[in-house]
Every structure is written in structure tokens, then in C-alpha cells.
């Protein structure tokens, strides 16, 4: 039984090879597999914990009250299944180096094009949001410093981190993520100490678990307040799929990817749910300020000024970490797009450290938009809300493509699913639940004027991509790729029918 296994039906796809050994003359450039298990595990954590939690949770709490705990649990529960679908797909064919590969292979070349370019924009917009947060955190120490200066400085630092080597990126992200973990665990422990020592805030409110329900119950802002909590909470989870883009540079992906993906529920309970519970236990939810990090505010409330400064440094490194992950992702997506002919060829050139330097420089140019926004705007939280809404819509599209790819995979390649050692729980039924949930998230974003504004702007991106694709698809190499995909669909259909006939 034959099968076309080249991702997206294209020869010469972006394939990572071991960093040792010679590369054949004339072969496409290869990324190096330099990320170990500890790098993959911490990148997964670092991508999932960012400014959405440290900064955005203040506004989310003010909108939803204690019900935000359930908001985070629901979103985390759903995204775990998205990651399981992605994991099964990536491991079904180790030629897949990211989710754009299996999207192109299963849905067609258009899906690879739309997914890759949209994911590039996802992380550009997300990194801009992180840089806006970096500027806010820097004002803690330098309140008179123009906000665009720390944003510009952060862009230059991130570029330096990423131009060195893949391993240097992995080490940087490892330590950034470790700082986040220590900070959140410390916050939980300090919060528990405050509760058990009957700490009282300056307003006279004692720290108590009863603060979660004694002011209007667990849903004090009603159903619409609960729904409003989903708007910024989604942004807190952006990057959870980052482990999928590291597949091309991961050692032993068949072992390390399942470990990273299966640790997601525990991470969500520890780093999101418990942290938010302790914040609202020490600080009643009505006293949480929307435009101040509740992590910093909690320590300042306790009169621990030095600790508040340390936590501010932690959330600053958190935002830097997420922006660092974003720059890594965008450069790798541009590298893959260049190899398949849907981005300029210069983006596939690797430096002596096996890093796509031209792609990194191109992405950094767009990150400078953050400095412009900070220079032109009078409200950081308004800019942050608009930018994070755009990022959320784009990521929902990417997550949706992963789920649709899984549905098609189950239909076209039932034998691979049957042989899989890392099957998605719930299978097809859960896939349709996920698509319904994504539709709910889009609807939730229409319920507030600030998020609706950003939501209405985002479709312009897909219209522009569609126009570009209509031009590109007429080129001979893209027409040949489409023919290969159609041939692969026919072969898969015959193979699936044969397998089903013998396994009923």
C-alpha cells in the first residue's frame, strides 16, 4: 500500500536534521535538532504563561469576578483536547514539523499557506501586546520614561537572543519559564500564609477563602459578566500550541511531545486556577484594579514593597519570555513558507548558527509597531485590549485548523489512528465540541465594544491572504503541488476503504 508522505504534498519541505553530519550539496537548508526534553517542557510552560495571566487577569477579574476561575478551567480543558489532536497528528507522520505541515497535507496547500501566514501574524500581534506590557512594567521603576523607549529596547534584546543559536533560545526560554514557575508558586504560598495568619488589607478586609463567594456569590456579575471573562482569558492561553512548532528542533519528538502535552492540565490547575484563587482570596475581587497587575498589587497590598518590585521584575521577564517565543515562532514559519515558495527566498537562508536570520530581522521590523502605538496612545489598557483581541481571533483560527485537520485525518487515514499510541481522547465527538466552543468564543468577543472593534478589523487579514493566494496558486509549482495533493487524497481514499473493509 503506497502513500504520499511529503507534508502538504511538497518535496523539500522544511525538515530538521541532526545538527551533526554533512548536508548534501543542493539540499534545502535544515534546522538543527538542538532542543532537549527540558527545553521542550519549559517552552511549553513558557508559551502558555504570559501577559494574559500576569496583566490581563486584572481586567478579567473585574469583569467576571470569582467566576473567572471557571472561565480559565473551561478554556484550559478545551485546549488540552486541541493539543492532543495536534500531538496525534504530529506523531502520525514524523515528516510533519509543525501543524502547518499536516494542515497542508490533509486539507490542501491553501491550508498550509493560510495557517503559516496567520500564525506568523498571531505571534507578531502577541509579541506587540507583550512589548506593550513590558513598557507598563518598566514604568514601575521609571514612571517618567517615555513608554516607547523600553519597548524599543526589548525588541533589540530579543533580536540578540534569537540570532545566536537555537540552543541559546532554548536556554533563555528555560530560565525565563523557571522564573515564572517560581513566582507563581511563591504567590500561592504567600497567599496561603496571609490566609492562615488572618492578614488584613488596608481597607480592613481579612484574607479569607470566603472572599470568593461572600460578595455576590461565585457569579456576581451574572451570565454576561461570566461570558465577558472569556474575552481576555483566551489571550492568557495563546502559545499553548507552541510545543507543536518546536517539533522540527526537538530531540526524540515521539517521547518528548506527549510528555509536554500531557502536562498541560496540571500546569493550568497550578499556574492559572490556584494563582487566581489566591489573588481573590487575599484581595476581594471588587478591589482588583483592571489596569494593574494583580500579582504586583497583591504584594504591594501586603506592604511588601521590595517583594512587589521583585514580582514586577518577574512579570517583566514573563512578557519578555512570551515575546521571545513569538519571535522564535514567526521566524520558523517564514523559513517554512520560503521553502515552499510562498514567501521570499531570502527567508530560508540560515546563519552559521543554523538560525533563519533574515526571517528574524523581518519579524522584528513589525514588532516596532508597539513603540508607535505606545507613542500615539493615551491608554495602555485600551491598546492592550484591542491588540489581544486581534491575537485571540487569529489563534482561534489556527486552533480551528488543527481540529479540522484532525477530523479529515480520521476520515482519510483510519489505519494511522488505529495504530497511534497517542490518540486524542473523545476523538471525532470532541472535535465537533471544540469547533462549537470556538464559535462561542467568537460570539463572546462581540459582546463588548472594545473587543468587537478589533474583531471586525481582523477579517481584513484573511481577505488579503485570499487575494494573494489566488495569485500564487496559478504559478506552475503551486499547481503541481495541488495535483500532488489531489493524487494523495485519491490514494488515501482507496487505502482507507481497503483498511475499513478488513477491520470492520
From TrEMBL:
Regions crossing the membrane: 40-57, 63-83, 117-139, 145-163, 175-197, 217-243, 264-283, 295-316, 355-377, 383-409, 429-446, 452-472
Signal peptide: none
Biological process, per Gene Ontology: amino acid transport; transmembrane transport
Disordered, as annotated region: 1-30
Main location: membrane
Keywords: Amino-acid transport, Cell membrane, Membrane, Transmembrane, Transmembrane helix, Transport
One annotated Gene Ontology cellular component of this protein: plasma membrane
Classification via Gene3D superfamilies: Amino acid/polyamine transporter I (1.20.1740.10)
Topological category with respect to the lipid bilayer: Multi-pass membrane protein
Cellular compartment(s): Cell membrane
PROSITE patterns, per the entry: AMINO_ACID_PERMEASE_1
Ranges for domain Amino acid permease/ SLC12A: 39-475
UniProt similarity note: Belongs to the amino acid-polyamine-organocation (APC) superfamily. Amino acid transporter (AAT) (TC 2.A.3.1) family.
Name of the protein in its database record: D-serine/D-alanine/glycine transporter
